[in-house]
Write a structure and sequence with these properties.
By secondary structure, this protein is an all-alpha fold. The protein contains five helices and no strands.
């Protein structure tokens, strides 16, 4: 597609996020299963339900725009999730694997926050205030998920990951 207007870019970026969210929907259950820490597994499971709501918000925006959300693959998310998949296959201490899962998940969250921040701004500039509000809601959720992962990493997971080294 040729990007002639900000509206064209807005739609393309929304499609990118839609693809990214669908890829995340497939990855989160695998991450939850791979997590050895119950809190981390629950965080991934909780975020799965939240991601389903985020997809529904995007679909609502696409319906109002009268545009199909399909037709684009988010290559960046594909790469981020491929790196995350490598962690699933690692032979690692459970706490270290959990720390690696959090690091991979936070890369994903940061990508999403950047994307949602951009499209929210585009929506506001284009006068799409209802869409901007929906996108802000998702952006807030992504930020909260990132913050929860940081707290879990700093207070539990990373501390446990250090323990095997400290006891040598």
């Amino acid at each position: 597609m040729k990007l002639k207007t900000l509206h064209d870019l807005y739609v393309e970026e929304l499609k990118d996020l839609y693809s990214a969210e669908h890829q995340i929907l497939k990855a989160l259950p695998k991450m939850a299963i791979a997590a050895s820490d119950e809190q981390l597994a629950k965080a991934f499971t909780d975020h799965l339900a939240q991601t389903e709501e985020q997809v529904a918000r995007l679909e609502e925006i696409f319906t109002k725009l009268d545009v199909s959300p399909r037709g684009k693959t988010c290559k960046a998310m594909k790469g981020l999730l491929e790196e995350g998949k490598e962690i699933l296959d690692e032979d690692a201490d459970p706490a270290v694997k959990d720390a690696a899962l959090i690091a991979a998940a936070q890369r994903v969250e940061h990508y999403e926050m950047a994307g949602y921040g951009c499209v929210r701004t585009f929506a506001r500039l284009l006068g799409e205030d209802a869409a901007a509000d929906l996108l802000q809601e998702t952006l807030d959720e992504e930020g909260a998920a990132d913050e929860a992962l940081t707290t879990l990493a700093e207070t539990v997971i990373n501390v446990e990951a250090v323990a095997p080294v400290a006891s040598l």
